[in-house]
Amino acid sequence: MIGSAVALAFGSYVLAAASPGPSNMAIMATAMRDGRIPALILACGVMTGSLVWALLAATGISTLLATYAEAIIVIKMLGGLYLLYLAVRTGRSALQPIPNFIRSDAARTPPCHLPLYRQGVLMHISNPKAIMSWAAIMSLGLRENAPSGTLPAIIGGCAVLGVGIFGGYAILFSTARMIAVYCRLGRWIQGLFSALFAVAGLKLLLAPD
């Protein structure tokens, strides 16, 4: 059975991965502009970049916990503050006009797959949100006395969730119906994410050690 800490890490990853950000907006835009396959290729690149940060964050935090257990307090504070920052930024985005993406003409030359994949990897690796989000996720899921299988469970579970989330964006936003839904409800969607980020950030900051 998945422990409550791991389940909380999964929930935080879903919030971070599904929230409006550079990677997701790029996947959405590519899906609505170029179609499903190019968007899925871009999503694969984003997922690769996410796993790179996951491994780096896991290695760093595991080392800190092994040598200096009190470091988790600092990590929790940074993670909680960053989640609150995302809440503010997403809330501000909800007040802005929703971009009007229009699918390009079907006769245009489709984009090459390798550049799209490379774009997804580089975009996610260069995004500070990714490493900070993973730091928050690991601080929620890992404890000083965590079982040996906790780390693989977090990374493996989040990888499966990431494939579903990023791939889901590519599939859903390649349909005319979702284009219309987002144009109509985009502000409400971003407002919901803002509230969820605020709750997660406060929970991380105020939770007992």
Number of helices: 8
Count of discrete structural domains: 1
> Tally of extended strands?
0
Bulk shape: globular
* CA(first)-CA(last) distance: 23 Å
Largest sheet: none
Radius of gyration: 18 Å
Report on the architecture of this protein.
The chain is mostly helical and 209 residues long. The protein has one domain (12-97, 110-206). Helix content is 79%, strand content 0%. It is built from 8 helices and no strands. The longest helix is centred in the N-terminal third of the chain and has 32 residues, at 36-67. 35% of the residues are buried.
Brief summary:
The protein is mostly helical and 209 residues long. The chain has one domain (12-97, 110-206). It has helices at 4-18, 22-34, 36-67, 71-94, 113-125, 128-141, 150-172, 176-206.
